[in-house]
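Input for the complex:
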Amino acid sequence: MIGALPNASALSRRAAHARARLFNTRTNTALSIVAIVVGGALAFLLARFILFEANWGLVAINRKLFFVGSYPPDEAFRIWIAVFITAVLAALSYGLWGGRLRPYAIAVGVTALLILTLGLGTELRIEERQYTEEIQSASGQTTTVSGIERELVFDRGWAPTWLYAVSLGLALPFGAPWLLMAAVFALLVVGAMAGRRLTRWKSNPILLQSIGAAWVLLIPVVVLLQVGVGVDKWESAFLDLLVFAVGGFFSFVIGVFLALGRRSPYRAISVASVTYIEVVRAAPLLVWLLFATFLEDELGPVGEAFSNISLTYRVMVVFAFFGGAYIAEVVRGGLQSIPRGQYEAADAMGLSPVEKYAVIILPQAIRAVVPAIIGRFIALWKDTALLAAVSLVNTLEKAKKVLGSQTDIAEGAFFEIYIVVGLVYWLVSYLLSRLGGAAETRLRVGAR
Amino acid sequence: MATESKREIVRLEKVTKRFGDFTALNGVDISVTEGEVVAIIGPSGSGKSTLLRTINQLEPHDEGRIFFDGMELTDDSRTLTKIRAETGMVFQQFNLFPHLTVLRNIALAPQKVHHRPEQEAEERALQLLDRVGIVEQAEKYPGQLSGGQQQRVAIARALAMDPKLMMFDEPTSALDPEMINEVLKVMTELAASGMTMICVTHEMGFARNAANRVIFMDEGEIVEIGTSAEFFTTPREPRTKTFLDQILTH
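Predicted:
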C-alpha cells in the first residue's frame, strides 16, 4: 500500500511470506501449528533447565577433568604450549582465509566459551552441622551419639543462579588459569588481525605451503611436547583430540596410498591393497581396538614389539589403519571420476608416473571427494568414544567417572555433564564440517 | 621431391596394433620428414587415431618398428621418455587440466620434463599464448574458456615442449562450428612456420590447403597416399573416390 511505513511494509511482507509458506493449505496450517507448539514447548523446557534448574557448578569444578583428566598439574605447561601454538595458527589461518567462515567461527567460539565458562564463579563449600542422635540397641539400651556432620554445598552466593549461565564473560577471571586463558584469547585476536594484514599474500604459494606445513607439524610437535609425561597420563578431551589428530592424519596418507595401490598395474600390490581394505572393513573398529589391546606375543616378534608399545600409541595405529581403509575407498571413487584424457594428456607430455599422480590426477581426485573425506574424519572423531572400551579414559568415560565418584554432589546431574560432553563432540564435528565446506568452495574454483 | 633430402622425423614399418580380436592397424608404413604437414583422413574406426597414438606410445604397437628422429622405440623406457618429451599432442577433447590455470597448464611440462626454471617457463607460456591469440586469458581456468579458446591453449601447451613433431587428433571435431576456424587458423599458421605436423582431421579444406601430403586410411590400412593437390583432384583408388564423394557432395 502506498503511504505505509517501511517498517510496517517489511513486517507485512514477512507475514505474507509466512502465510504463503506455512499456512497456505489446511494440512500445512495444521502441521505448522503442531510444529510451533512442540518446538515452543521444547525451547521453553530447555531454557528453563539451562537458566534455572541446571547445576552448572558440577561442570565448573570438573572442567579440568573434562579437558585433560588427571594430567599432572606440574606438567600443565606442555598442554598450554600446545594450546598457544594451535591458537596462533588457527587465528592466523582464519584471518587469512576465513572471511566466509565468520558466522561459523562465531558459533564455534560461543560454544567453546560456553564449555570453558559454564558455572564459573561457583565454589564448593563444606557445611558443618552439629548433630545428636539417640540409638536404641537390640538389648533395649539407649545410647546418645553426637558429632559433626559435613556436607558439600555449592555456594552460588554472589549472584542469582541464572546469571551463571549467561554472565560467562564476566565470570572468566574467577577460573584458576584465567591469566593463561586471557593469553590464549589475546593470541587469537592478535593472530586474526595479523592474518588480516597478510591478506594481500593469501594466494602466495610460499605462505600457503608454510602455514600448511605448520599445521601438519603441529601434530608431532604436540606429541613431542608430551615426552617425559608418559602417554598413559593422557585423558579426556586431550586424549580424544590427539588420537583423532594422529589417527586422522595417517589414515589420510594410508588411504591415498591404498587407493593408488588398488589400481597398481603390479598385481601383487593391487591384490594386497584390496585384501587389506576388505579385511579391515570386515570387522568393527571396536574389535580392532580389542585386538590391539590383547595382542600379546602370539604374532611372534612383531606382535611382541607391538604389545610393548603404550596402549595409547597402539590405539592411534588402529585408528590410522582402520580409517585408512575407508578413506582408500573414498579416494578410489575420486580416482574413477577422472577422465582417461587427463592421464593421456599427462603421459603425452612426458610426465613421469609419480608427477602424473602428484600434480594432475590426485589433486583432482581428492577435491572431487572432499565432502566424503570430511565425513570419514567426523566419523573417526566420534569413534574416539570407543576408547573407553579398551580402558582408556576418554571424555565420555571421564564424565561417567565424575558421575560415579562424586555421588554426593553429582546426584541426578547427569544431564548437565552429558550436555557438556555432547558439546565437546559437536564442537569438533562442526568445525570439521565447516572447514570441509570452506575447502570445497575454495577448491571448486576452476572445476569444470 | 625436395623433402627427400630433409631429415626424417618419423618412420613406421609394418606397424600392427590389435585390440583383442580387432585389428586396428594392419602393417602400416609411413615416413614423415622435417617440416612436412601430413593430413590423415578416413572413415571413423579406420585406425587414424590409433596410428597417432602408437607414435607416442599411448597405445604400444604389437608388431613392426617405429623410428623417431633416428631412434627406434623399444621397451627401454628412455626411448619412451624421449619421444613424449619431443612430441606435442593435441586431443579432440582438449584434455586441459581443469584445476590449473591456463598459464600453469602450459608451463607445467617444460618445468617438470625439461627442468626449466618457473619464471622462464611462464614467460615462454605467455609468448605462446600470444601466438595463439589469447594471452589475456592466462590467469583463467580452462572451464572459463570457450571450446575454441581451450583448444588453442592445448596447442600452446603442446608447443611449450618445443616439439620436433606436433600431432593433432581430430582437433576440431568437438568444437561448435563457429569456433572451428579460430583453431584451423592457428594450425595453418603453425604449418606455414615450418612445424612438422601429422593431423587426423575431417576438415578437407585444411587438408587440401595446408597439408603437403594426404593419407587415406580404411580398416586399419593405408589405402592411398598423395600430395594434397593430386589426392583431391585425381584420386586413384575406388575406396578413396567413394569416401571423397560422400563427404564432398554437400
